Amino acid sequence: MTRISCALPRWLLVLGTGVLVCVGMAWSADDKDRSDIGKRLDASAKVLNEIMATPDKAIPDKLMSDAKCVAVIPSMVKVAVGIGGSHGKGVATCRTESGGWSAPAPITIAGGSWGLQLGGQAVDLVMLVTNDDGMQHLLSSHFKLGADASAAAGPVGRDAGADTDLKMRAEVLAYSRARGIFAGIDLNGSVITQDKDETRILYGRFVPFSEILSGETQPREASEPFLAAIRRYSGQAREHGELKPAPGSPATASR
Predict the structure, then answer these.
(1) For the chain, where are the alpha helices, taking DSSP H only?
(2) Rounded distance between C-alpha atoms, residue 188 and residue 191, angstroms
(3) Has residue 54 got a pLDDT over 70?
(4) How far apart are CA 243 and CA 236, in angstroms?
(5) Residue 221: helix, strand or coil by DSSP?
(6) DSSP 8-state assignment for residue 8
(7) CB–CB of 109/191 below 8 Å?
(8) Cα Rg for the chain, rounded, in angstroms?
(9) What share of the chain is helix, strand, coil (3-state, %, to 5)?
(10) Lowest mean pLDDT among 41-50, 77-86, 108-117, 223-232
């Protein structure tokens, strides 16, 4: 009687094992990527909450309430020693025609000579787009500050009389925070572009900047902490009597 073996050839077992390992690695990498963009959104919200919780050193209320777009680069800017280079990742959102805020769009910022001003350390960056021209530059998904769009260091202080300042003519106002020091910063020479890879991770496919920032794209659940912070400090929440210190902020803790 002939004995029938059910054993699979060794090469087939090895191949199957390899496929399973590759699939597992792909799933693991995908989960990590999703986790990274989620952490970046949370960190962006935290940056805004911490900055705006200190009235004498915060972004002026009027600027936040009038801003067309807000972008945050949370603790990811690294400066190359000696050459002043820079690179960082963050997210941006713009006001929509309905008066709300768009889903966040992942962005990168690179270049510029401002790195030397920061002493080579990681910093938080916040940028406010102040008018429609600046907003159109941002919607283009690639523009250079100081060339395509005028930029200036933003004034500091919740009650600062920024509306009469010459720098209010700038299309982009920029701020930095390093080692607890918050101040306006000159980002001229820096290039802002859409982060296409992280856009795919966040939305499951590539979505153009203009489609996201115009409000045509629905925000993902991971975006809510960031968008809640934007609403809280942009004046939209204040109009509805909802402007309160964020939970865990210094203002809340001191009560």
Answers:
(1) 10-52, 61-66, 132-139, 196-203, 209-213, 224-233, 236-239, 250-253
(2) 9
(3) yes
(4) 9
(5) helix
(6) P
(7) yes
(8) 22
(9) 40, 25, 35
(10) 77-86
Q: CB–CB of 140/118 below 8 Å?
A: no
d(CA 130, CA 105): 18
In the block, residue with structure tokens 């002043």: 84
pLDDT in tens, 68-117: 999 999 875 555 544 455 678 999 999 999 889 999 999 998 876 554 44
Tokens 């990527």 found at: 33
What amino acid is encoded at 240 in this protein? Answer: H
Q: Which two tokens stand for residue 107?
A: 């962005």
Task: For tokens 């609403």, name the residue.
Answer: 231
Q: What angle do CA 150, 105, 180 make, to 5 degrees?
A: 65
Query: Angle at the Cα of 215 (from 108 to 130), degrees rounded to 5?
Result: 60
From the list 29, 49, 70, the residue with the least C-alpha distance to 232 is 49
